[in-house]
Specification:
The complex is a heterotetramer of chains A (about 325), B (about 300), C (about 500) and D (about 350). Chain A has about 325 residues and is mainly alpha-helical. Chain A is built from twelve helices and no strands. Chain A has a single domain, classed as MetI-like (MetI-like fold, Orthogonal Bundle). Chain D has about 350 residues and is of the alpha/beta class. Chain D has a domain of about 90 residues. Chain D is built from eleven helices and 13 strands. Chain D is globular, with a radius of gyration of 21 Å. The chains are: A mainly alpha (about 325), B mainly alpha (about 300), C alpha+beta (about 500), D alpha/beta (about 350). At the A-B interface, helix 1, helix 6, helix 7, helix 8 and helix 10 of A face helix 6, helix 7, helix 11 and helix 13 of B.
């Protein structure tokens, strides 16, 4: 197990290098630089050039790249140009918000997705199945940011029940935190629930046809027990796979939802950095997202072993 | 049919009879009928926009700004005083065009990359590693980064979205190529001395087409959703030509006072994407029952 | 009980110091301001962004600052003596002015700050006339100019990228490396990158004894609230919702419809901050056909300014073609008959005489809605006279990079706000040496030179009128109109008066 | 194992005129048709037939485990005094694993791969026999001992994939035993196993059946197994009963041409695992059942009448029924005047 984790971690290094190379390529291709953000429209080219020198942006890309890798290897993601603080600090400060949003949405999407998917499978080809699948499909087809906007208009502006945006740290005020996360998490959940529900349904349909489910039925166990205890654990493997797949999409969705609900998460940090050409933050942020993605996939792989005793890592 | 591969074989040597059964099943599938119907309606509206739209979508009248829906303007007007219904109808043109171009680009590049990786063993590992790294970027951030920095044009939006959807497509193509590559008739063709590229295209790719078609239907849906997100972030296709996304983006500053500017194009996106998803589901059921909802 | 006695004592103390405190207003309170963008930096010297000004001018102060009518008046300076030849400026500094780190300001701090600004200031040209800066006493600084500059005090007091006075220690540090230590009425507490900046009342603040009340960015800056937090909310809807849910007390800018709605609510006051800026459409004089005055005249004649302003800046605009704000002493009506003619036939005539040959022209614009809207309206209007324009929308860094090069653009629309606030020289400056239009205009260069050396106000007014005439005659660039901001304050915030920035001194929070 | 006249005892299980079908209501396709038989306490009845004859379908019908696409269209199943077919699904379900237990053909897939062996046995004991966890664990150990699994306590913690096929089938049997069932239905319990293992499992089954006195319905295509194990034999063909008789009568005096053909094709030791394919032609598929005797197309002695008339199971001796007209001279005994042929 440990050696499997180690091997997986080793094999993700090339992926991370590729990610950072791609980010550099992006930065290299991109016109504009952070200097312009400090200045308004009437800044002269000399002023911009002056500022570029101040910010160390007049170095050639390869030398910027080398020094970046050098620093990353010693665990330093560098300094943000605009935020005037270390990139690692900025990221770590934002990370909990993005992760908690993604985790909340993932939790509810998995919970209700499995519930709905199982209900649909058990009622296969009946009214319940078709209506649940229709709902799942509707969720998949709604533009997330648009749903967020509509929810803001209804729940924040018209009804005034929930804040339209902003973030309250959980350490400060739990209720406030829950209120600030309610709409974003709901928005994200709705758009992801369909994936899980659909996967659960097809996996459950598959499993319910299996011999061992018939064996369990032959034992005279109650149907719900058979479904929950015998069928569901076997359906979890494909559900887990799709969960791993949507985790990437979920992070992307979180980025958009953060934007709509003004949550100061990693996504906002990165989009802000893209728009202001804060290169170290773009680098560090994208690298962090890649790390999260890889970690999620590693966890998924490890969970396989937990769910299915046949899977063993040597 | 229990095994999708058999369908693929039918595709290679279309037996008139089997082709007809396939067509019958395609037509009989409820998802395809409903989804295809929705997509067809929106497509027809978009294509015949000049005939259907009640107003010129670009004609502004600042004296008729932000009018609520009425008999004159069914969907109200935006802050230019432009008819939102007409803009939504015309917006379908750009959104569908972007979706289509993304499907085309993703189809071509996904097939090339996935096909080569699947067919040439030597390429498989390095190429797929690259795809892994690529997928470790959240697709939408990649699209935002590309579109924001290269400037918002239809071309750049298409490039951005294609970059985001290609790796997964390549994976799917590769997976089916791996399966087909080992099948007897490919071995046979190889034994007969067919050149690699010919084998690749004629046999392997033709037979990987079912999952590709299904995937591309979803890519179409993803592209339409993503175009709207890009517009919302402010890096979508530039005005004045309306797209679903930039109509919403235009309306968001007036979201509270004039929600209709935001709501109607959102519903339009929803309908198209729903149609495409239904279509994809139906195609999957008929063409390739092995595929799951994963996409 | 104890708290109440303390409070009464405080009110008594303030009343004695001459500040008018209304009976029901209280000491203390935490004010939240919702503004659109995050400041790129809190190092005041290096950024000229409005978002940064809003915050930084609470933390830092300058030698001279603009008063309520944008006239330079002493702030950290006690007095100023200018030599007969206009080349030597001797500043006496106010004594006993505390920095947030506990040190007291002296001449060394001022010299170091000015030197730093000359080196890395975002608008270092403001100080380009300086030859030398010397501390000639503990509280005396002597600045020598290399040539006469009539606008030197205007420059010194510019809030654009404020020439803030730092401690000598801080002024030795590079761009963005300083701790945020100033002499202002608020001290820096916390900066959550693009989320919020929090400032607290600086209890040892040295209120300028030469004034009795607040006056522009100068005056007596009495603070009665405990803290101010600037929230960065790019979404217009979010800002309004923050106000309505009580999260924020001031919104820097709201859209017209929301302003209309909020104005009907007794709990809020909507301030029309108008004029706040010009909406400007620039031409690239280095490219055909925008290098051709006839073509530019065609564009100018075609545009319907009412249409542009009503759509891009709904409900808060002025149709005004003057290149200064109407309340400015140099405001004049030279050439205004050429403004907003909206005559398509005249435009076609100019166009026919021009070198335009049916090619597609590029209109670059950043992705802020008003600027995009302006570009969209212009594009639609020009289509009617047969000029084909394509919009190229990108984010600000990309657009501003392209816009200062001679290639890749023909039109560029953006706001032009701080320059007219600063005065005539600042309005002309961007056109000097062809910086904003990529080709030298000798006429403008000459006028600028004359203006900055003319000491007589009447001469300067005449020179500026000449400049305005030239802007229209040659259609150097187009001014579409003035726009403003709807600023909204909740009524529990008393005595709030909008200015270039939402000032948090002299206000009380009624809790 | 022959000759005990068990059929005199009052039957434990009575199946009467059982039919099942699939497909939409308007186009029902019959699978099982008019199947009747009884099982007495302690009796072993072998049900034989080729693949597709409906053997497994019959077992699933008795257990009420039919997939949803297949429905029971007629007939009753009575267990002792209880008419199972009148019970609700829930009540019938409650009978499973208590009165009736079943083991399946594929031990490889019949155990839940993600549950430990112990859990799969103990859940029957806990949930059906209301034992405490500790009792269940002790009982599970005892059951594994009963099915001759070594170091049972250890095995309880194993997952199915860690066991061999034979072991898994023993576990399946232990699960069936755990229910204390009166009737055990074994659907091809040895088909998927190696020859040597087959014998062991059959020995085990026979021994357990004798020790515990439960009735055993043994479904197999293997006449050798039937000969060794069964008291009575029911031959199924294409969803219908062909012949029903004590095991001696079947082997010594088969009356149905299909039974005869089956006996003729008993595989030799070497090829025992092969399916019975030596009869020309194949079982008609569900959608293409001929109107008359379903075996007619393959029958060496079929007459024209056989293609139009489907004979019911008719008694030819006291405990011997056959669904063929040949022994009766191509005439239904009750209808005297049938058009003869050739």
């Amino acid at each position: 197990m440990l050696s499997f984790v180690l091997r997986r971690l080793l094999s993700s290094i090339p992926v991370l290098i590729l990610v950072s190379l791609m980010t550099f390529a992006l930065i290299w291709l991109v016109p504009g630089d952070p200097a312009s953000v400090f200045l308004d429209a009437s800044a002269t080219p000399e002023q911009i050039e002056n500022l570029r020198r101040q910010l160390g942006l007049d170095q050639p890309i390869w030398s910027q790249m080398l020094s970046w890798y050098e620093r990353v290897l010693s665990g330093d993601l560098g300094q943000s140009i605009l935020l005037r603080r270390s990139v690692a600090d900025a990221i770590l400060e934002r990370l909990p918000i993005t992760l908690s949003l993604a985790a909340l949405a993932l939790f509810f999407a998995v919970l209700f997705g499995i519930l709905l998917g199982s209900l649909a499978a058990v009622n296969h080809q009946r009214w319940g199945d078709q209506s649940i699948m229709a709902i799942a499909l509707l969720g998949l087809s709604i533009p997330d940011f648009w749903l967020g906007l509509v929810l803001i208009v209804v729940f924040a502006v018209q009804l005034g029940w929930l804040p339209s945006g902003g973030y309250v740290p959980i350490t400060e005020d739990f209720v406030g935190w829950a209120r600030s996360m309610a709409l974003p998490a709901f928005t994200l959940t709705v758009t992801q629930i369909g994936f899980i529900a659909r996967m659960t349904r097809s996996a459950m349909l598959d499993v319910l046809r299996q011999d061992y489910v018939r064996t369990a039925d032959a034992k005279g166990l109650s149907h719900s027990f058979v479904v929950l205890r015998h069928a569901l654990p076997n359906a979890l493997v494909p559900i887990l796979t799709v969960t791993g797949v949507i985790a990437g999409g979920l992070l992307g969705g979180a980025v958009v939802v953060e934007q709509v609900f003004f949550l100061p998460g990693l996504g906002r940090l990165i989009i802000g950095a893209i728009l202001s050409r804060d290169f170290p933050v773009i680098q560090g942020g994208l690298l962090m997202l890649a790390v999260i993605y890889l970690v999620i996939n590693l966890i998924v792989d490890l969970l396989y072993a937990l769910i299915d005793p046949r899977v063993r890592y040597g | 049919m229990a095994d999708g591969r058999l369908n693929a074989v039918e595709g290679l040597a279309p037996h008139a009879n089997r082709l007809r059964t396939l067509l019958v099943r395609l037509v009989a599938n409820r998802s395809i009928a409903l989804g295809g119907g929705l997509v067809a309606i929106i497509t027809l509206l978009a294509v015949f926009a000049p005939l259907v739209a009640p107003y010129d979508p670009l004609e502004s009248n600042f004296r008729a700004r932000l009018l609520p829906p009425s008999a004159e303007h069914w969907f109200g007007t935006d802050h230019f005083g432009r008819d939102v219904l007409s803009r939504v109808i015309y917006g379908g043109r750009l959104s569908l065009e972007i979706g289509f171009l993304v499907v085309l680009a993703t189809g071509i590049f996904g097939t090339l990359i996935g096909g080569c990786a699947g067919y040439f063993r030597a390429l498989d590992n390095p190429v797929m590693r690259l795809m892994d790294a690529w997928m470790a970027f959240p697709a939408i951030l990649l699209a935002i980064a590309v579109s924001a920095t290269l400037g918002a044009s239809v071309t750049n939006v298409v490039i951005a979205l294609s970059l985001a959807t290609t790796p997964h497509t390549a994976r799917i193509v590769r997976a089916s190529v791996l399966v087909v590559r080992e099948m007897e008739y490919v071995e046979a063709a190889r034994a007969l001395g067919a050149r690699d590229m010919r084998i690749l295209f004629v046999h392997v790719l033709l037979n990987s087409i079912a999952p590709l078609i299904v995937r591309l239907t979803y890519v179409f849906a993803i592209a339409i959703l993503a175009e709207a997100v890009l517009s919302y972030i402010g890096v979508g296709p530039p005005p004045p030509a309306p797209s679903f996304g930039n109509i919403i983006a235009n309306g968001r500053d007036f979201m509270v006072e004039a929600p209709w500017v935001t709501i109607f194009p959102g519903v339009a996106i929803f309908v198209v994407v729903l149609g495409l998803n239904l279509l994809g589901d139906g195609l999957r059921d008929v063409l390739d029952p092995r595929m799951r909802v994963e996409r | 009980m104890n708290a109440r006695i303390l409070q009464l004592a405080l009110v008594g103390g303030l009343a004695a110091s001459g500040l008018a405190v209304t009976a029901n207003a209280q000491q203390g309170g935490d004010v939240v301001i919702a503004q659109t963008q995050a400041p790129p930096s809190l190092d005041a010297h290096v950024t000229s962004a409005q978002a940064a000004r809003n915050v930084n001018l609470h933390i830092y102060e300058t030698l001279f600052a603009r008063d309520e009518n944008a006239v330079p008046v002493p702030d950290l300076a006690e007095s100023l003596e200018i030599s007969e030849d206009g080349l030597t400026y001797v500043f006496q500094l106010r004594e006993g002015v505390n920095f947030h780190d506990g040190t007291v300001m002296d001449a060394e701090d001022v010299v170091a700050s000015l030197e730093r600004y000359r080196e890395i200031g975002a608008s270092s040209t403001l100080l380009s006339a300086i030859d030398s800066i010397e501390a000639t006493g503990d509280h005396e600084v002597t600045v020598t100019l290399s040539e006469v500059q009539s606008t030197f005090l205007d420059n010194l007091s510019s809030p654009r990228a404020p020439i803030a006075i730092y401690t000598a220690e801080q002024a030795a540090l590079g761009a963005n490396e300083v701790d945020y230590i100033g002499t202002g009425p608020f001290r820096f507490v916390e900066y959550q990158p693009d989320s919020f900046v929090r400032l607290e009342r600086f209890d040892d603040y040295s209120v300028n004894p030469n004034y009795s009340e607040r006056d522009g960015l100068a005056g007596a800056k009495e603070v009665s609230i405990d803290s101010v937090t600037f929230l960065f909310m790019p979404e217009a809807g979010s800002r309004v919702a923050a106000l309505e849910s009580g999260e924020a007390h001031v919104v820097e800018t709201v859209d017209g419809p929301s302003a209309g709605r909020l104005a009907e609510n007794d709990a809020y006051t909507v301030h029309n901050v108008l004029p706040f800026a010009f909406q400007v459409i620039k031409f690239n004089h280095a490219q055909a056909p925008t290098n051709d005055p006839e073509f530019r005249r065609a564009v100018m004649a075609a545009l319907d300014m009412e249409e542009i302003m009503a759509i891009s800046r709904p409900d808060i605009y002025q149709i005004d073609g003057g290149w200064l704000f109407p309340n400015s002493p140099f405001y004049n009506d030279a050439a205004l008959d050429q403004y907003n003619v909206a005559d398509l036939d005249a435009a076609r005539e100019h166009l026919a005489n021009s070198s335009y040959d049916g090619e597609t022209l590029t209109f670059i614009v950043d992705n802020g809605r008003p600027n995009v809207d302006t570009a969209t309206v212009v594009q639609q209007r020009l289509a009617q006279i047969g000029v084909d324009v394509e919009l190229s929308v990108a984010d600000w860094p990309t657009v501003s990079q392209i816009g200062f090069t001679p290639d890749g653009w023909h039109f560029w629309a953006h706001g032009f706000g701080i320059e007219p606030f600063e005065g005539p020289a600042s309005v002309i400056a961007p056109w000097v040496d062809g910086v904003s239009m990529q080709a030298d205009d000798p006429e403008i260069n000459r006028l600028y030179q004359e203006l900055t050396t003319a000491m007589d106000p009447d001469d300067r007014a005449a020179i500026f009128a000449e400049f305005q005439q030239h802007m229209y005659d040659d259609a150097v660039a187009i001014k579409a109109g003035n726009y403003g901001l709807f600023q909204v304050s909740a009524d529990e915030l008393e005595n709030f008066v909008p200015y270039r920035i939402p000032r948090m001194w002299g206000v009380q929070l009624n809790q | 194992m022959t000759g005990v006249p068990l059929s005199q005892k009052p039957p434990l299980l009575t199946v009467e005129a059982l039919s099942t079908a699939t497909g939409p209501a308007r186009r029902r396709l019959t699978i099982l048709e008019d199947v009747s038989f009884t099982v007495s306490p302690g009796e072993v009845i072998g049900i034989v037939g080729e693949s597709g004859s409906g053997k497994s379908m019959l077992a699933l019908t008795l257990m009420n485990l039919l997939p949803r696409s297949i429905v029971r269209t007629a007939g009753t199943v009575r267990l002792g005094e209880t008419v199972l077919t009148n019970l609700s699904n829930k009540a019938w379900r409650d009978r499973r694993g208590r009165d009736m237990a079943m083991i399946f053909q594929e031990p490889m897939t019949s155990l839940n791969p993600v549950m430990r062996i112990g859990q799969q046995i103990e859940e029957v004991l806990v949930r059906r026999r209301r034992m405490t966890g500790r009792e269940a664990n002790r009982e599970a150990v005892r059951l594994l001992e009963r099915v001759e699994i070594s170091s049972p306590a250890e095995r309880l913690r194993a997952y199915p994939h860690e066991l061999s096929g034979g072991m898994r089938q023993r576990v399946m049997i232990a699960i069936a035993l755990a229910a204390n069932a009166r009737i055990l239905i074994a659907d091809e319990p040895t088909t998927a196993l190696d020859v040597t293992i087959q014998a062991q499992i059959l020995d085990l089954l026979r021994q357990l059946q004798a020790d515990m006195g439960m009735a055993l319905i043994l479904i197999t295509h293997d006449l050798g197994v039937v000969a060794e194990m069964a008291h009575r034999v029911m031959v199924l063909y294409a969803g219908r009963v062909a012949e029903l008789a004590p095991v001696d009568s079947i082997f010594d005096d088969p009356r149905h041409p299909y039974t005869k053909a089956l006996l003729a094709s008993i595989p030799t030791i070497e090829s025992r695992r092969e399916r019975l394919t030596t009869i020309d032609g194949s079982v008609p598929t569900v959608g293409a059942m001929p109107p008359g005797c379903r075996f007619a197309s393959r029958c060496p002695v079929a007459r024209a009448v056989c293609k139009t008339l489907a004979p019911p199971v008719m008694p030819i001796a006291e405990d011997h029924g056959v669904a063929c007209m040949e022994p009766f001279g191509y005439a239904l005994p009750s209808s005297a005047d049938l058009p003869g042929a050739a």
